[in-house]
Design brief:
single chain, about 350 residues, alpha/beta, Rossmann fold, Alpha-Beta Plaits, 2 domains, binds adenosine-5'-triphosphate, binds magnesium ion
Length: about 350
Amino acid sequence: MSGTDGLALATRGLRKNYGSRRALNGLDLSVPTGVVYGFLGPNGAGKTTTMRVLTGLVHSDGGTVELLGKPFKRGDRRRLFEVGALVESPTFYPFLSGRANLRELAAAGAPVPAGRIDELLDLMGLADRAGDKVQNYSMGMKQRLGIAGALLNDPKLLLLDEPANGLDPAGIVAMRDTLKTLAGLGKTVFISSHLLAEVQVMADVVGIIAAGKLVREGPLKELLSLEGVVRVRVRPSLVDAAIKTLAPLAKAEPLAETDRDEGWLSVHLAPDRAEDVNQMLAGAGIFASGLESSADLEMLFLDLTGGNGSPDGEGTFVGLTGPIDGQDGGTPAGKGAAA
Ligand SMILES: Nc1ncnc2c1ncn2[C@@H]1O[C@H](COP(=O)(O)OP(=O)(O)OP(=O)(O)O)[C@@H](O)[C@H]1O
Ligand SMILES: [Mg+2]
């Protein structure tokens, strides 16, 4: 494959159909070595299907996969010893402890050095519950045990499908630290999520897919500088005048009726352009009484995926744009978070 030097994972033109349903439609992913890569897409976009193809759980119908610089072909499952994965929700023996489950897993695969299991239990914050039966673990604890299992062989590439599922906000922060540590050790971490806030917190590089195709890929910082929102507050009676004044610069609108009543306008503009908004309004004799800006991956996500990316109500997570309410998929801007 051309153009894949230095990549830990690359797919080119990957296709997968389930009967007449097209799950992957020519997917090109380029995952650099040593980063946390956030693989983002709305429900049904093809994330799990991609993970299944990458781990040999299903065969693709076309295209190529390169894992750690070498082609991954049908039947090449030995290659997967270098790759750790958590794709389907992990299955454990419920009547065994977390530690015993990891021992079972280790016994079934390549040999693991002594002390490795306790090291991993510690890393995933399970040390003090390692002796408890897995049936008494919470969902988040099972998820963390699954990740410990994926790390048993000290893989260079880690593939995790929705690793933050079932984790509380503190668990997500702990997960981010763990994944960053792994990336700092030169490992590549590929995580999928349909929740933006998670990816915004965890990833260095982001790939966004919709309907089985890549729609945007790049460093998170770069993507965020492209898309954002500047919020400006003017006298409520001047809202319409302000919208007209700003029109040559960017689209401005009150996002809700309460915004209009309070004089808040959202201007769809890169976050570093707040000054321009201020200057332009002042030039028209409209003086802002409030100004804030934030990067907004959510807006980019909704744009790129055709608005089909609403979070599905799994609770409130804290991202760069402030709390994102899981019930409220339609609000483009996290209010009140200044960048
Ligand atoms: N075993 C299957 N048989 C038939 N269709 C399937 C199967 N698995 C997935 N699909 C379809 O393939 C498409 C992609 O599904 P996939 O599970 O990869 O999406 P996803 O991005 O992981 O979504 P989610 O965020 O909900 O986990 C969907 O239209 C889905 O209905
Ligand atoms: Mg999925």
